[in-house]
Amino acid sequence: MTTWSNWVGNQSFAPRQVVATADEESVREQVRAAVAGSYRVRTFGTGHSFTPIVETDVLLDTTALRGIVEIDEPARRVRALPKTTIGDFGKPLWERGLALANQGDIDTQSIAGAVATATHGSGRRLPNLSATVTGARLVDGTGEIVVIDASHPDLPALQASIGLMGIMTELEIEVVPAYELTARTDVLPFAEMLETFADDIDRYRHYGFFWMPTDASAELYNLSGAGADDCVLKRYLEVAPGTDPADLPEHHRLGPAFEIYPMVYDPNFHEVEYFLPLDQARAILSEMRQLMFEWLPLSVYPLEIRVVAADEAWISPNYQRENLVVSISGEPGTDYWTYLHACDQLFAEFAGRPHWGKIHFMTASRLAGLFPRYDEFVQTRKRFDPKGVFLNDHTQALFA
Questions:
Q1: CA angle 193, 331, 201 (to 5 degrees)
Q2: pTM of this prediction exceeds 0.85
Q3: φ and ψ at residue 79, rounded to 5 degrees
Q4: Is residue 314 over pLDDT 70?
Q5: Which domains does the chain have, with CATH numbers?
Q6: Do the beta carbons of residue 275 and residue 324 sit within 8 Å?
Q7: Is residue 199 packed enough to be buried (19+ CB in 10 Å), middle (13-18) or exposed (0-12)?
Q8: 137-162 pLDDT, tens per residue?
Q9: CA 38 vs CA 34, 139, 239, 267, 291: distances in Å
């Protein structure tokens, strides 16, 4: 029996069957069979989620559905198949004078999986990938094809839907004129970072940092030594036309945006990520810092902080709220659940919303209080999937 596992191995299951689907029609056939046989069916992206959102009875492998379908330069739109990776967009768009408006530091995720979980980059004026979706074709829970465009009333439900409304077979996203970025990194004390934080998030196109509570956490970035503990590794990106690479300090980079965004990560961590109101950033950062000091050595892994713009997707964590994004990592195999629950309790005090692809401790009642359009999303999900073929135990507890 085939076992499916995510990239870090904290989620795995054995589906009854894995079925390769070559095109949209074969996806329809499999969904209709699931409805007729009263079993569940889902697909997967590239396995970058830490939550059990893939688990199902029959797992569809849509690897064949990969590639850019059309680039519309005047409209600044691109249509792509669901398995197209974020990295796949880089060079083809660049050659047509276009680029993704924003992306994270991992570019191997499939575009359908990334938008389904509201995957994001950083930047106070830049929303997540879901917000760029302007249309899609999908197979709904009855096996029918649904076409959604930018004017469709269900688009805000679909944009970040964790695959609960259907299996996307094509999607359209909005892009922007091509741009270069300079990537800069600095190491500075936490107190100094906090003093300039408000100005920095306004000044830079992209801004984020890793806080290293001890020298042991600094070693993860080869920054051990005097002054490395209780410091931040600040990473900020700017559009800087005309910059001469020779003028950049060591470890700073310049190039097309799609080449600058990605960073290399070994899958050696598990991650919790919550989105919290940006206007309470100073209080959140101060309390989180104190909590991490109390829980050492479990919090040796650095704290990652970013900011993301508001959007209109109903269950996006950024729905109508710009957020401070707080990411907590831990080493696989380490029992640090008590610490993570303590972090969750702190985040709850600030109305923290979860990243759908990262470990979280949500319940349906909590979600209803955090997302103003939660009930509407649940009703829309039921309309698109009346038999619940796209649900699993995890998502049923949250959205049934």
A1: 20
A2: yes
A3: -105, 135
A4: yes
A5: 68-177 (3.30.465.10), 180-355 (3.40.462.10)
A6: yes
A7: exposed
A8: 999 999 999 999 999 999 999 999 99
A9: 6, 17, 52, 36, 47
